[in-house]
Amino acid sequence: MQYPEFKNKHIISTKDLTKKELGVILDTAVRMDTVVQTQGFSAVLPNSLIAMLFLEPSTRTRLSFEAAAQRLGAHTVSVSDAGSSSAAKGETLADMVRVVAGYADCIVLRQPYQGQARMAADCIDIPLLNAGDGKGQHPTQALLDLYTIRKELGRLDSLKISLVGDLKYGRTVHSLCYALMPFTPQLTLCAPPELGLPRDILDDLKNHNIRCTLTSKLEEALQADVIYMTRIQRERFSDKSEYEKLKGSFVLTRELVLRGNKDIVIMHPLPRVDEISEDVDGLARAAYFRQAHNGMYVRMALLALVLGGDIP
Ligand code: NCD
Fold it and tell me: Domain range holding 70?
């Protein structure tokens, strides 16, 4: 099966995706899940070469993209450290992606500046997947988050979802807000006052009539279908004493979980620092490692779609 409307599409922000497109991506990821469970590999993209440009630290995103590419039979070339690339010599991102676009059929890009993924995409005519642009967006993570919610709960519509932690700098939360919007969630936004959701995103949610409750009490966030914990994003603080003051703001313990909604699904994009204590890991509703595994299927789906592969 093919979806020509996705061919050559850049994936920069979840704000750009319609409910129908979200559905196609999630359904394609289900097929990829089946492919991996039944065959392990499938030659969907045997003639494609994908460039992974990771100019900021990454484990999950880079390795799941690499694994996704290889499970589809594609080839990869990669930069996994800005210091080892010509960025260290002062090359602009625009020049870098123009050069790489001559070598590869698709670029997966992570870099530290908000808005620069879109700028880079505008410089090239092969598809670019934004794997995180500073404190901006992380659309492929939000798609795997949607996939996980649907897999864990069997649906996406009208859920009560709590977003907890660093909502200001956490790009996964920014992308997840827009990805959830078409499914009319009720959101509880739980953050220290200094780390609330950016005003423009809050306004967009309100303009779409999404009910948002603001709180700084973790107990309140536990009265939901899903609790999505996030790390305080240390690397985004210009004032390190501010980070020191805010770190450890929320720590989800087993005891707290057991006092919340008994069916709550616990998610986290990972890496965690101390915001979920390890005694939560053994609970059946702790979904964060399953969530990380789902990333590979969703990234297989995205690569196959934007490169025009025949979806099995
Ligand atoms: C997230 C990121 O890089 O934004 N990690 C990830 O891709 N799973 C979250 C984080 O770093 O806190």
Answer: 4-138+294-306
